[in-house]
Input
Amino acid sequence: MVPIIDEFSRIAKDYLQQINDRSVFPHSEDLEKMKLLDVPLQKQPIDPVKVIQELHEFGSKATVASAGSRYFGFVIGGALPASLGANLVAGVWDQNAGIEAASPISSLLETICQKWLVTLLNLPRETVVGFVTGATMANFTCLAAARHALLQKMGWNVEKDGLFQAPSIKIVVGEEVHASVLKVLGMLGLGRNNVVKIPVDSQGRMKSDLIREYSEPVIICAQAGNVNTGAFDPIDDICEIASRMNAWVHIDGAFGLWANASPQYKHLCKGIHKANSWATDAHKWLNVPYDSGIAFVRDKRHLVSAMSMDAAYLISGTKREPYHYVPELSRRARGIEIWAALRSLGKKGLAQLIERNCFQAKLLAEKLSAAGYQILNDVVLNQILVSFGDSDTTKRVIQKVQEDGTCWCGGTEWQEKTAMRISVSSWRTTEEDIEKSANAIIKIAGKENPFTD
Ligand SMILES: Cc1ncc(COP(=O)(O)O)c(C=O)c1O
Output
């Protein structure tokens, strides 16, 4: 085993030492070269050291440097040193996290993370946690618990009897609900189109005064962190309305939920503890390696009823049995990296990470604005939307910025405008990176838009 570990260490050092000196998006010749991995599968085994050398030689330069400090696409965090190290330890341990008996250590770390996360994010003390692949599956897990709770109240056991004859549930979302929530509603048999969409304001926040009161069971899906603007729905008001009709409030906080761990930003989450379930990603702002999402449900009974299964060979003890909290049985031990990230950051380090990225987003927005470009959103968190003129010009600037490789930013169509989307979510990003990226974007935009100063 030692040669493979030595070679892996060499490759890891080589990769990480260069990550900030290369184009953030791979060059076309590197994308060509990666195709050399596409060989006919040989008959005989080959040396594992050679296998990872091939990956490095033909694959490493073809990666997107999203683990580096100037990747601002989608909402993609880096991997903290402790979480990366723990990911490697997790690989060596190779634990099946699904069953307590298969990994007491993974199970313990998940239990510790549950306690730490619930405290850090100021959620109700009784809240339980499931460790899943990402916010899409966290939304799924939470909404499965919601479906169970509401139908059980109507005397219907959805897990046993399915949905065909079940009482109907009204689902309320904002116009700018994340697409993954709609996908999840489809997967749960509730229907992507079977939703009441509440109009939103100029930042994409649900206009809560337009939520009607219904007599049938209701799930309201609110958002902590709009994927374009970073804006938060008025969660406190929504919870107030929900309490009048006994509705279940689910919060999609894929990245925004982490704001509740920051004294400076937690005001955005006002009232969030009144909800019934919350979904977030650890692979976004907690900066653990992919894949890692977290489902939080206030009432353990509803989550466990939705997720548990019985099989004689799965001996359930009295401890927290991980497979009762998530859709999967066998799975990797994600709690290890989450534990390591939280242990290394502490409460203060996590708050500083959130606050630093938010400050950097404001700084970048100010620089682009000072250069004459229009910031379309209120930069309340880590997301920036910027227009470089008309739609075609903005699209050209986005493409040229991506080709230039100093940084990487994506594009979006938002409230009928074309915009560059910038998300600052990595522990690695420094003010120097912001300066360098702003200069590159402004230089490119100046060439594409010669009439701007
Ligand atoms: C608000 C929101 N919800 C859900 C998701 C889906 O997250 P994941 O890709 O981790 O499943 C995202 C991803 O960006 C998001 O921003």
User: Anything to note?
Assistant: The first strand starts at residue 128 and ends at 132.
